Amino acid sequence: MIPKTVIEKEISALSTSLAPITAQMHQWAEKNIFLKWAVLSRGKFHCLECTHSWKPDSESQSCKNYINCTACQGKLKMHQHNQVHFKEIEYFALTDTCSGYQVVRIICSHKNMKKNVLPAYSHTEVMQHWINPKGEVRTISRSTNVFSNAYDAWQYYSPLEIRPKDFQNSPKYRINPYKVYTHMKVIPLLKRNGFKTSVHGIAPQILFTALLKDPIAETLFKSSQTSLLKHYLTSHEQHLRENWQAVKTCLKQRYQIQDIKIWEDYIALLRWFKKDLSSPALVCPENLDQAHDRLVAKKRDIQRRKHLAQMRAEIQKAEPIYENDKKQFFGLSFTDNDLTVKVLDRVQDFLYEGDTLHHCVFTNEYYKKKDSLILSAQIENRPVETIEVSLSRMEIIQCRGLRNKATKYHSRILRIINKNLPEIAGRLKKQKKQTAPA
């Protein structure tokens, strides 16, 4: 994109004046952002870090996910498949300042490995985020291959060009580097707003932008509520802004929320009961799971005792709406031996699922969520976990069993869902084609 406005021209000019990335920075990245790998080939372990090879001490050793190299003593992750060439791609970030701007530079690093050969590295700067003191951000980046299935398939020989403002909505903008270079340079306003030395696992461009313009983010950061801050800035399902009164109560009490999603559901229940969200006794329970389950049971009892007929009418009213929204997924199921994962086809199934597993999938009306697909993982036709999948991002939002706990089937269920996300996406795409105007 050709820079047109005064700001775009200024940023494009300043970009060329940034100091080059040094060999020392590259060496730091090579030591800190990559895993060390090994592969089993022809009965021998091969360290892809130092080229050493040796025979396993026992047959069971060859089945481990991690081993230690007998030469360099490195902890090596085992490659699942033997091949000629191995590649790992990671991102790291540098922070800099320039003419009052906070600059976040994103570097894409490649590690190329081969048995009996020392690894080779390459590093390319792919993005620069320029953030002014008001928290407004503009991005310069390289082009990507539009025909690739990966959103970050960079054209490494394309120039760094200014991107439009709506680039912030792109997943490329939200790339979170594996690590940030330790020698950080930040503008004084960020230090004033509480930033010290760590981004706490949050993409630095997102954290810096929020600290400069969002008082909620600044308050959470200064209160050392980093898990809440990360949830607030990165989760599409967060409701901290609308629950801010309850959050402030937690901050005053220095209450640490163990499970943010359960806590938000719990606050939604408190609101349903019209309770005082500034009361520490209510908002900061000693046992969150017990308090949540108690309110779920209480709400369910009220619904059943006083509004049974209304509930039936509500289910009947919701059934055609739910069917119209999700009918393209009805009948969809995945099987792995004794474990079956299938879409909930009726609103009545939500009630049964919630009653069986004692969670709030029906109570909190998950069947009304347009962007969510709810599935049930079952053993012998009995629910063991309920799964919520985001249809817009094609990722698992949550997967919970009895009383919101993970079961022994949890990893298998996640693996089944992730394996079959393309089939869910295919049904969604097919339905969009059918409803598209001719």
Which features does this protein show?
16 strands, 438 residues, six-stranded mixed sheet
What's this, in brief?
With 438 residues, the protein is α+β, with helices and mostly antiparallel strands. It is built from 12 helices and 16 strands.
Would you spell out the secondary-structure blueprint of this structure?
Elements: H1 6-15, H2 23-32, E1 37-41, E2 44-47, E3 53-54, E4 66-68, E5 75-78, E6 85-98, E7 101-114, E8 117-131, E9 137-141, E10 161-162, E11 179-180, H3 188-192, H4 204-213, H5 215-222, H6 226-234, H7 244-253, H8 260-272, H9 280-283, H10 288-326, E12 333-336, E13 339-343, H11 347-357, E14 372-379, E15 382-390, E16 395-400, H12 410-435
Parallel strand pairs: 1-5, 6-11
Antiparallel strand pairs: 1-2, 2-3, 4-5, 6-7, 7-8, 8-9, 9-10, 12-13, 13-14, 14-15, 15-16
| Widest beta sheet: strand line-up | 10-9-8-7-6-11
Fraction of residues in β-strands: 15-25%
N- to C-terminal distance? 33 Å
What about the largest sheet? Answer: 6 strands, mixed
Q: What would the average pLDDT be, to the nearest integer? A: 90
Report the structural category: alpha+beta
